[in-house]
Design goal:
The complex is a heterodimer of chains A (249) and B (489). Chain A is α/β, with parallel strands linked by helices and 249 residues long. Helix content of chain A is 51%, strand content 12%. Chain A contains 13 helices and eight strands. The mean pLDDT of chain B is 95. The chains are: A alpha/beta (249), B alpha/beta (489). Chain B: This is Iron-sulfur cluster binding protein.
Chain lengths: 249, 489
């Protein structure tokens, strides 16, 4: 069932995510700039940190709740919240209501869940962007995170944005829907299994002959490009926001 | 892996996973088999909306039946008794084994044939009976193969899926008298059939599992492809059905949608070759069928699952194995690596609840929470959510439900708990977080090149020169000042 989307708002909150904050800030900036180019004023609350997912997925609910409550506190006020990561958006949208189910923050968690959008979803459905591609010809492999495919169901939005790009050809990898093996702390707690998964993912991506790898989730990117780098293989990888922003100015 | 030893699950889990990942033949067998099964299932459900509607229906049927489980079980017992089926209740694996042995003793029985029953694996029946001088022969071809190899099943539907035909050819050649090495699959099946036929006629007791137990009519339903289930339940003079208490459904009308989901999800078949419905022992004017039919209703931790609203969803499972077939972890390590009777995503949920987190909780690690299992599940069990919940229960010793999963808090590691406490402290105090970001970005040249297991297989990510926090603050400042500037002009 498709989500009902509102008219384009004048202002939004941007939730940068902790991985982007520290390792991929240019992806966050690209997301902000893409939104502002559509005439949406972006507010970046300086009190934000992390959605709490690492602790939540590891089974440390109390710690996750503590951090999650801090995000709820700084994202108050009814504005839509745009998140450049399906995984963190999914945390807000589907897991906060569970995490706060029997607590006084339940209502606020539900309210935040309803206001949360993944970036490509927001650009495609709320801003209804029309992208003009000025970049060179590229063959792009898209890696959609598990959260984009199954939690947020926004995998198609990333594809539809890239399809607007005149000089971009999308190439299909084998077993495209399979998890890359990141899984947050899974990569560290079950490193050998995670490695088996990411190696296969790298093989399938390299086999496409793509010139670029694009994903809407920096966790997957960090995992895949980290493994490629260790193998001394090159496949330039970018967050989809950076990729689109660089080509459309 | 000749015998399921619950005590070794947590202790040897990492080693088993490591061994499985090293075994290239095993990995190739599983990859091929799982790709094949995923393809078959997908072909059975070409219409996405139709599939969703059917899954919703399946979920609703199972939920409705579970919501009245105690009443349905009573009704089932009453109907069975009226039909002449003898009903026994077993709270634990030991009780179930003892009941079955007692039935065997009553008939001076020493030979049992079995139609595939994962519940009998769950209670360790074969070994228990062997210790008491009873020979137990598996008659499902896959189970027969793993029994011959002195192994346990590696999949709940396809027990020998981890073996290729060359391995089976070698096994038959080595273990069955007078059998030459042959990779001809029809020939291999023929060999198995010849051995089993004789055993069916010699057996004193046949033991089967149950796919659905119908409360309204007291009917035992058994889904199978090879006819071994029919032979097991009709040829020997005594039939014992071992049935988890969650298998009960309200009426025969509940069966068709569930059966449709089961066979299509499991093996990609629209229907199976056999669907057996057993509602009584042989009647006086009938020429065949067992003279006695017994049902052993097995709890073994199920009522504990039932008591918790979220964990109760585990009991919706109709044992199709689709979650395994779609799990990227199971595909790579196979069923034996889990070390439990039930492997894969459903095994990660069921096993720690049956044997306790202190015994089998570690297997919940083997999940990236990617959700492919829940997407494939025909009755929409939120497997990833339940795996995550059990991780929480493993770390947490304060009771969350009554009764809490056994072994609650048993896997809590002090160092890990302290790490997460520090993490929470850092991330819920904006000032501390900003300071940490500042330090990490300014000292990025000193960022560690090795970060535990992460960098065993990947390069280390390097902090950016400026965090998004800083960049975003700069941008909003410059936006504000340019607006200010614009106003002055």
């Amino acid at each position: 069932m498709q989500r009902a989307y509102p008219e384009k708002p004048a202002q939004v909150y941007f939730f940068g995510t902790c991985l982007i904050d520290l390792f991929y800030p240019e992806a966050g900036m690209a997301g902000i700039q893409l939104l502002e180019r559509e005439g949406v004023k972006v507010i970046y609350p300086q009190q934000q940190s992390c959605c709490g997912q690492p602790a939540y997925n590891s089974g440390y609910d109390n710690e996750a709740r503590k951090v999650a409550a801090a995000q709820i506190a700084c994202l108050q006020g009814g504005l839509p919240v745009v998140v450049p990561s399906a995984s963190c958006a999914d945390m807000f949208r589907h897991h906060y209501p569970d995490l706060f189910a029997d607590t006084p923050l339940r209502k606020q968690a539900l309210d935040l869940a309803a206001r949360t959008y993944e970036l490509t979803e927001f650009l495609a459905h709320v801003c209804k962007v029309r992208l003009v591609d000025h970049g060179p010809a590229a063959t792009v492999a898209i890696h959609n995170s598990c959260s984009a495919q199954r939690g947020m169901k926004t995998a198609q939005d990333a594809i539809s944005l890239l399809r607007q790009m005149r000089n971009v050809a999308i190439v299909q990898q084998e077993r495209a829907s399979e998890c890359c093996g990141f899984g947050g702390t899974f990569a560290v707690k079950a490193p050998d299994i995670s490695n088996a998964m990411v190696q296969d993912k790298c093989d399938n991506l390299l086999a496409t002959g793509a010139s670029d790898l694009v994903s809407g989730d920096c966790g997957c990117l960090m995992n895949i490009s980290g493994a490629l780098e260790k193998r001394k293989e090159t496949l330039p990888a970018q967050h989809i926001a950076s990729f689109i922003w660089e080509r459309t100015q | 892996m000749s015998r399921f030893e619950p005590a070794t699950v947590n202790l040897e889990f990492d080693k088993r996973v490591g061994d499985a990942l090293q075994d290239q033949e095993l990995r190739a067998n599983f990859r091929g088999a799982m790709d094949f099964l995923m393809g078959k299932r997908a072909a059975m459900f070409p219409d996405k909306e139709g599939l969703e509607a059917l899954r919703t229906q399946g979920e609703a049927i199972r939920n409705r039946c579970l919501s009245q489980l105690p009443e349905l079980l009573e009704q089932f017992e009453q109907r069975c008794t009226e039909n002449g089926i003898q009903v026994h209740w077993a709270e634990t694996a030991q009780e179930a084994n003892a009941i079955i042995l007692e039935i065997m003793h009553k008939h001076d029985a020493t030979r049992m044939v079995k139609g595939k029953s994962m519940a009998s694996e769950e209670i360790g029946l074969n070994h228990f009976l062997a210790d008491h001088g009873v020979e137990c022969l598996e008659t499902d071809m896959g189970e027969y193969i793993v029994q011959l190899a002195d192994e346990t099943p590696s999949h709940i539907i396809m027990p020998a899926i981890h073996k290729n035909k060359q391995q089976i050819a070698r096994l038959f050649n080595q273990k069955i008298d007078g059998v030459e090495y042959s990779e001809n699959v029809d020939r291999l099946i023929g060999i198995g059939r010849d051995v089993l036929r004789q055993k069916f006629f010699e057996a004193d007791v046949g033991l089967s599992g149950v796919n659905f137990a119908v409360a309204e009519t007291g009917t035992l339903c058994l889904v199978e492809n090879e006819g071994n289930g029919r032979m097991t339940t009709t040829v020997p003079p005594v039939h014992i059905a071992l049935c988890g208490i969650e298998k009960v459904v309200e009426s025969l009308r509940d069966i068709p949608p569930l059966l449709k989901l089961l066979t299509r999800s499991a093996t990609g078949q629209a229907i199976t070759t056999y669907f057996n419905m057993i509602s009584s022992p042989r009647k006086p004017d009938e020429k065949d069928g067992p003279k006695e039919v017994h049902v052993v209703l097995l709890d073994n931790g199920r009522s504990r699952m039932y008591a918790d609203k979220q964990l109760q969803q585990t009991l919706r499972c109709i044992r199709c194995g689709a979650c395994m077939n779609h799990c990227p972890v199971y595909t790579r390590i196979g069923g034996h690596a889990y070390g439990t009777t039930y492997p894969g995503p459903i095994g990660q949920v069921v096993s720690p609840q049956i044997w306790g987190l202190h015994t089998a909780g570690s297997i919940t690690k083997a999940c990236s929470l990617n959700g492919a299992c829940g997407e494939a599940c025909p009755v929409k069990i939120p497997l990833a959510d339940l795996i995550r919940r059990l991780r929480y229960e493993s770390n947490n010793s304060e009771p969350t439900s009554v009764p809490a999963p056994r072994g609650q808090g048993a896997l809590r590691k002090r160092s890990e708990a302290v790490t997460w406490k520090l993490w929470a402290l850092l991330l819920h105090k904006p000032g501390l977080y900003a300071l940490a970001l500042f330090i990490a970005t300014r000292l990025r040249a000193l960022a560690p090149r090795r970060i535990g297991p992460w960098t065993r297989y990947r390069s280390a990510p390097k902090p950016a020169a400026r965090s998004l926090h800083e960049l975003a603050a700069q941008r909003s400042q410059s936006n504000a000042s340019s607006q200010e500037h614009g106003r002055h002009e």
